[in-house]
Amino acid sequence: MALAPVTPSLSRAELRGVFEKGADNSELVGIEVETAALDPGTGVAVPYEGPRGVRALLEHLLAERPGAVPQYDRAALVAVRLPEGGTVSLEHGGAVEYSSPPYTCVAELAGVTERALRGLAAAARRFGFALVPGGQYPFTAPEEVEWVPHSRTPLMRRHFESLGRPGAAGVQVMSLALSTQVSLDFISYEDLTQKLRVLAAASTPAAALFVNAPLEGGRPCGQLSRRLDYLSRTDPARTSIVPMMLREDVDVEMFIDWALNLPMIHRAAPDGGRCAAPRVPFGTLLRQGFGDGSRPRLADWRAHLSQIFSDVRLRETLELRAVDGPPFGALCAVPAFWTGLSYHPPSRAAAWELLRGIGPDEHRAALRDISCRGLAADFADRPVREVAAELLRLSECGLRARVAAGAERPEAVGFLAPLHEIAESGVTFAQRTLDQLREDPATFPARHIALHRIP
């Protein structure tokens, strides 16, 4: 006798509802800045525990800012929600991340973010360490990482290790990589389609403008972005380029089908931490459950979407994750670049015309080349420098149009200046770091941190 079909625990409409927008048609922008916590003289990474560790920094924020709310992973303090908005959280390898609330324009976001980061850096100085943005921990070798006690950390490490060679670098991404990520809105399904495909396509050439991870363990690693190299060898099913996102006809239904075919890595545990999920596609979990009598709910679907680490991550917003984190003085170039390219329909359409038809294999080949050669790399038989420069021009056109329409303040256009300098000279953040290292290797750690720390 045939078995009766099992009704999934979530309907298709509920899955799709995560991506539905209200009627306000707002296009906000937010930022997440990951910083390395370093000894200012030696560059040694700051541990979690101890009177001068990153946990002590979080405890200080709770004590000094009335209304701050702690966030625990089991017994471990791992984040603080700030009373003025935004969150300070700890990454797996000890990086300190500031996540802003969303704002209506890049200039407003920049002002809030600078004040928040300077305040956070001042607090870190009380504990004797510096906060340094960038693309990777510059003076820490993989074997020297001191892990933050997140309950999901061992689960993710086991996941990457279980993949064998394709996931070989996942642990290094978790522990050493840094980035500056931007979140953008979409206002309809059609708008989502247009933004998703162009942002996925633009992520590869944009990465060449931002390469900023040439060191590992304090020495040149032979690449301009060790972070991009590691990402290319981390779980190809859910990182870097997602082929479906490059398609002309990509839509929400296609994305949902793709996500349902990915296994969930971890889920909420009753004790406030995370536990391993069965190694089956999420769609199977909807029908069969977790094996303990429970089946996924919306919180599990949202958590599953957060376990996708692609260059463009789709949840309630579009999260741009492709580029290395730039130095402190250039942080606002990241939201300015993506906002100008995304929120001005003519710039967005022109960018798609420039990039359409370039397949995932060409993107992957270009990313491998970019990790080594930066702007000297090739992209689909063209110099990536040319493509990146054209995207930068379109982004500036978009920002200027927003200024003219009253949606942006004029100073936002100036945030692109560091990228124009790079595009015109061909000299990337990474190459500047290598030049500084050659000047005097013995004093380089202290000089590098003094130059790049958040003041």
Describe the structure.
The protein has 455 residues and is α+β, with helices and mostly antiparallel strands. It has a single domain, classed as Creatine Kinase, Chain A, domain 2, CATH 3.30.590.20. It is built from 18 helices and 17 strands. It has helices at 12-17, 54-64, 106-126, 152-162, 170-176, 189-210, 226-231, 252-260, 282-288, 298-306, 333-342, 345-355, 360-373, 384-404, 411-414, 417-425, 429-439, 444-452, and strands spanning 29-38, 69-73, 76-81, 87-90, 96-99, 130-133, 180-184, 215-216, 219-220, 239-240, 266-268, 274-276, 309-310, 312-314, 318-320, 378-379, 382-383. The strands form five sheets. Strands 1, 2, 3, 4, 5, 6, 7, 14 and 15 form a nine-stranded antiparallel β-sheet that branches. Strands 8-9 form a two-stranded antiparallel sheet. Strands 10-13 form a two-stranded parallel ribbon. The N and C termini lie far apart (71 Å). The relative contact order is 0.15.
> What oligomeric state is this?
single chain
Could you describe the largest sheet, including whether it forms a barrel? Answer: 9 strands, antiparallel
Terminal Cα span: 71 Å
Mean of residue pLDDT values: 96
Share of β-strand residues: 5-15%
Pick out the low-confidence regions: 1-5
Shape by Cα distribution: globular
Please report the total strand number as a whole number.
17
Radius of gyration: 21 Å
User: If you consult CATH, what is the topology?
Assistant: Creatine Kinase, Chain A, domain 2
Structural class: alpha+beta
What number of structural domains do the residues give?
Answer: 1
* Count of alpha/pi helices: 18
Helix percent reads 40-55%
The CATH first-level class comes to Alpha Beta
Please state the second-level CATH architecture. Answer: 2-Layer Sandwich
